[in-house]
Write a structure and sequence with these properties.
Shape: globular
Number of helices: 13
CATH superfamily of the largest domain: Periplasmic binding protein-like II
Low-confidence stretches: 1-37
Helix content: 40-55%
Number of domains: 2
Length: 283
């Protein structure tokens, strides 16, 4: 406290030259902060690595495999970004994020891009900038034997969701639901398997894969609300990186890359009941 008062006293008593110098320093600091906050392409290239936020517990999109390495659909795409931007797919640093922390990781410059199965919403678009989408997604609901087939059947029941997800946002706006929330996907699904809720809501794409490994459960509601899209996100105002990502995604679409990524990472998880065009953009 004394240090702050002393500093204020110096400013108040200083001459015009010192005030002018201070103003100049503030402007320079402002410019520096502004530049650093952009995570520009030049900065990424100078660093030699692109930092991408991903899930570590959401197979088949982002997870750590048995060898302790990041794997999944988002990882597959992120490596291609690194290859095309920096010449080597290994020049990517994956940072594990939880759903509720994705926005903060961008705002705090901890990552350059978020690829953690990030659904684009109007609320999120006010805080970060989304590139062109590469996936389609809707909210789904899973229950034992798929017995819950309508939203009305969820009234006064315990519904499990992940904090900070679109499922959380969708049901939190409604008054008739008893929500049980968890930070991590592993916690969410473990609680569901332990019977702590009658149903669980998440992205339908994730649920399609989960029920394949848990046949006692079915996706009774495959689509709630409007269909959304999943896209990479960058810090608000990072126009240079945003434009690069948009051009890259256009190139990958024309090349058929996302279809190959689907076949290599998602097809085995979804099985024959799900077609690529239901999940990804193909053109």
């Amino acid at each position: 406290m004394m240090t702050g008062i002393f500093s204020l006293g110096l400013v108040a008593c200083g001459d015009s030259k010192s005030n002018s110098q201070e103003t100049s320093n503030e402007k320079n600091a402002s410019v520096k902060v502004s530049h650093e906050s952009q995570n520009s392409l030049e900065e990424i290239k100078n660093r030699g690595v692109i930092r991408i936020g991903v899930f570590s517990d959401k197979p088949p999109f982002g997870y750590t495999n048995k060898d302790g390495k990041f794997d999944g659909f988002d990882i597959y795409i992120a490596k291609r970004f690194a290859k095309d931007l920096l010449g080597d797919e290994s020049k990517v640093e994956f940072l594990p994020v939880e759903a509720a922390a994705r926005l903060e990781y961008l705002k705090a410059n901890k990552v350059d891009v978020i690829m953690a199965n990030f659904t684009q919403t109007p609320e999120r678009s006010k805080i970060v900038d989304f590139a062109k989408p590469y996936m389609k997604v809707s909210l789904g609901v899973v229950s034992k034997n798929g017995e819950i087939t309508s939203e009305e059947q969820l009234y006064n029941k315990t519904l499990i969701v992940n904090k900070g997800t679109t499922a959380d946002m969708y049901f939190s706006k409604k008054a008739d639901f008893n929500l049980l929330k968890f930070d991590q996907n592993t916690e969410t699904f473990q609680a569901f398997l332990q019977g702590k809720g009658e149903a669980l809501s998440h992205d339908s794409t994730l649920l399609f894969a989960w029920v394949k490994d848990n046949p006692a459960y079915k996706v009774g509601i495959a689509e709630l609300g409007e269909q959304d899209v999943i896209a990479p996100a960058v810090k608000k105002g990072n126009q240079e990186l945003l434009e690069w990502l948009n051009a890259e995604i256009d190139t990958l679409l024309q090349e058929g890359f996302f279809i190959k990524a689907y076949k290599d990472t998602l097809s085995s998880a979804f099985g024959n009941d799900v077609k690529p065009e239901m999940v990804i953009f193909t053109k």
